[in-house]
Request: fold
Amino acid sequence: MRTDSVRMLEFPQHGDERGHLVVVEGMKDIPFEIKRVFYIYGSDANVVRGCHANRRSEFVLINVAGQSKVRVRDGVGNEAVFSINRPHTGLYLPRMVWKDMYDFSPDSVLLVLSSEPYDAEEYIRDYDAFVREVSGHA
Reply:
């Protein structure tokens, strides 16, 4: 599965009495060149975001404030849940992994780094269609 490729990344922290600094560079701290950045905030705890897979895009999710959970599925029966709750860690998501983000804390700011610019055509938004595509029956 691709869920075995899903993994937590830890980024170097720099800090002193003035505070902390975390630097994340594409092709160094994460395994791709960053081509798009966006963030999610103001989502209630009972809201589920994502609910899709991507044919080409890879992602790193970082809760720069607060916390959230991410459930990943591979379409062949494997799934895992990750808690993202430290601003110096990120969750790496490879291509063709179904993702659901949920259980957002009130102060959650979920930063997303993407390997691709937005293209609606590469999104799979129906889980059954995703399962068919993963199994080669699309």
User: Anything to note?
Assistant: The mean pLDDT is 95.
